[in-house]
Design brief:
The protein contains twelve helices and 41 strands. The protein is an alpha+beta fold.
């Protein structure tokens, strides 16, 4: 099929989004969740699909639930457990996610048990009969019935105020459930019997995720290793530790509490004799990189590959022989699957990215999920020494008619003369003889990176495409700079911006713009900069540090969920970490904090800006966006506000996302489309 259409936001929402795969014990099959969206209905539906690692056609396994996800193959290979909200025989929909199981060859799914507060994550025991699951349970409630009663009482309470003395009481877009803790329960998958494992104890899983990476079951089923916060008061940024729970007695033993080290992602070896985890020396620097380590019987750490200068941000998967580990880690704008034999000093790339998102293995079969700048996520399998084989085609038909522009990687000399990676995405049919507008898309984090990845919210191909309805528009060149602080370039690069945020990053972005201005295809009079989260902070920072056009180089900015006032970020969920990033508390060294806050430079701001924010954003509270917009209006600077009452740090609902894209593109077009072209349109 001839590729004729550029990628647009509507098409982006029609593409299937694939979840992490789970491989069968024999290695011949896999299961994963596939989510598709209906923009007209403004919602998505997730189904489970069964794949064959030999490449035979996949088969839909479930079709009744709304959000079938997190599938995990039973160790016995006879059934697949998953989380879902489904309708029972009475037609009532589960109010919270529950645990279901379906026979491996299909049929009707069966709810294994009902736990009223809902189930966040789960893992099988090796016997294929028992399951451990994480849930936000009520203190003092010992049975499933008691939790149901406590939940009803909580719902019946009409008061809406949140009263708390806890430092860690909200996260990203939600308040922590009142009176509840994320703890573990045991489920007999055959009888449905639920018994507490850590419930009723002081042991609490970290509040930052669903718990899946925060516990592991020893192969003999006698112990469960759990990540916990050993501090007297849980806080975001506290170093985490490991404990073990005796399944029979529920006795809790602190396995590894190492001062100054954060431990995470525990994983037992296949024989259960060794325990691996991720370990980061946060006592030396809160930006420390996490690397694999072994935990000795006495709780001491044996860091593996200590000289390897990359950060591991995935599960640890033991090799079948127990002599090595697999994991994913970023490296210079790509995310690879790595293999580390225990005797080796450094890991080697086992499967190169693109961007490896998930992986699993059984026997001699390796399975992975990866996307790239050229395509959304795909599932691949490799058995033994055979060549890798792609085992699904979910998006092939939808992608077949799309014309995607070239993606190019280069380096410029950034701050201090250090090399800085830059990604360019060109419009389809790029003609170097024509002048093109330029759009910076500045990534967030800052400990993140732009790279060889597809992107669902900030896809550069969408913004590189020619403007619809504008005759002769050749499109834009999208620029993504991996500025100082970005991940995948080593600890020194990552840590370099601490206490001086905005300084080096701006130099890097300006260096990329310097290079762009030397290219004959770049129109230096039509450059716009956009960014989200920390990228939003940077464009607000640029507005106070780069003269407005034509003295400066940027015609307009787009600031999505960006930090404007550093003092106000103490209202964020991440407030304990902010002084570490800034190098000072505002009540101790106000000048140093203000020197890193865009609002302190508001008197210099003169560049038109589109400000976007969501009311449910707890990471960068929307007071930042509103204050930025109001400041620009007060100063007479052209500005536009897009504010969502029902969105968080991101924009996740299809209808809202389409509006976001319309506003974004219209603002960029307003400031980059030549006047003559606008008149013709």
């Amino acid at each position: 099929m001839t590729q004729t259409r550029p990628l647009d936001a509507a098409t982006l929402w029609r593409l299937a989004r694939l979840g992490a795969p789970s491989i069968s014990p024999c290695g011949r099959e896999a299961v994963l969740g596939v989510t598709t969206y209906d923009a007209d209905q403004n919602q998505g539906v997730s189904r489970l699909w069964r794949l064959h690692t030999d490449g035979r056609a996949p088969r839909e396994l479930t079709s009744c639930g709304e959000k079938d996800g997190q599938p995990a193959w039973s160790p016995r290979g006879d059934r697949i457990a998953f989380l879902a909200r489904r309708r029972g025989a009475d037609g009532a929909l589960d109010e919270t996610p529950q645990l279901y199981a379906i026979a491996a060859d299909g049929g009707e799914a069966r709810r294994l048990a009902h736990f009223a507060p809902g189930i966040e994550s789960f893992k099988w025991f090796a016997d294929g009969r028992r399951i451990v699951f994480a849930a936000w349970g009520f203190a003092g409630a010992r049975t499933a019935q008691a939790h149901a009663q406590a939940l009803k009482a909580d719902k019946d309470d009409k008061a809406t105020g949140v009263a708390t003395s806890e430092a860690f009481h909200r996260y990203w877009d939600h308040d922590m459930p009142r009176g509840r803790r994320l703890q573990l329960w045991l489920l007999d998958a055959d009888t449905g019997r639920i018994t507490p494992l850590t419930a009723g104890s002081a042991l609490e899983l970290p509040r930052t995720n669903d718990g899946n990476g925060s516990y592991d079951v020893r192969p003999d089923g006698r112990r469960v290793c759990v990540v916990f916060d050993p501090a007297d008061e849980p806080r975001l940024g506290n170093p985490l530790a490991l404990a073990e729970v005796d399944v029979a007695t529920r006795r809790v033993v602190r396995r590894a509490v190492v001062p100054g080290w954060e431990l995470d992602a525990p994983a037992y070896s296949p024989d259960g004799r060794r325990l691996a985890c991720l370990a980061a020396n946060t006592g030396a620097a809160h930006t420390a990189l996490a690397r694999p380590a072994l935990v000795a019987a006495d709780g001491t750490l044996e860091p593996l590959c200590p000289g390897w200068d990359r950060h591991v941000d995935s599960r640890l998967l033991w090799a079948a022989d127990g002599q090595g580990l697999r994991f994913a880690a970023e490296d210079r704008g790509r995310r690879h699957l790595w293999r580390l034999p225990l005797q080796d000093a450094e890991p080697t790339v086992e499967q190169a990215g693109g961007w490896v998102q998930g992986f699993d293995a059984a026997g001699d079969t390796l399975l992975w999920l990866a996307d790239s700048a050229r395509h959304p996520a795909q599932v691949w399998a490799r058995a033994g020494g055979a060549a890798p084989r792609r085992i699904e085609r979910f998006n092939d038909e939808r992608m077949a008619g799309l014309a995607l522009g070239e993606v190019r990687e280069l380096q410029v000399a950034g701050a201090g003369g250090e090399p800085v990676q830059v990604w360019l995405t060109f419009p389809p049919g790029f003609d170097a003889k024509k002048k093109h507008a330029v759009l910076h898309m500045i990534h967030g984090g800052p400990f993140a990176a732009a790279g060889d990845s597809f992107g669902w919210r900030w896809n550069p191909h969408v913004f590189a495409a020619p403007e619809p309805g504008v005759a002769g528009d050749p499109g834009r060149v999208v620029v993504q700079v991996n500025y100082h602080g970005s991940s995948g370039f080593g600890h020194a690069f990552r840590h370099s911006l601490i206490g001086r945020q905005g300084e080096l990053e701006l130099q890097d972005i300006e260096a990329a713009t310097d290079w762009l201005c030397t290219q004959r295809w770049a129109d230096r009079d039509r450059i716009v900069a956009s960014g989200g989260s920390y990228g939003g902070f940077l464009v607000a920072w640029m507005n106070g540090h780069v003269p407005a056009w034509p003295q400066g180089r940027y015609r307009a900015y787009v600031c999505h969920a960006g930090v404007f006032d550093r003092i106000s970020t103490f209202s964020a969920d991440s407030w304990p970490v902010r002084p570490l990033d800034l190098g000072a508390e505002y009540w101790v060294d106000m000048p140093r904090v203000l020197a890193q806050s865009p609002h302190a430079f508001a008197a210099r701001m003169a560049t038109p800006t589109l400000v976007i924010h969501g009311a449910r954003d707890y990471r960068v509270p929307d007071a930042n966006g509103l204050a930025y917009f109001h400041t620009l209006k007060a100063r007479g600077v052209p500005a536009r506000l897009l504010w969502f009452a029902d969105e968080n740090h991101w924009v996740l609902k299809p209808a809202n996302s389409l509006q976001w894209h319309r506003e974004f593109r219209a603002w960029v077009a307003q400031h980059t489309t030549p006047v003559k072209a606008r008149r013709r349109a």
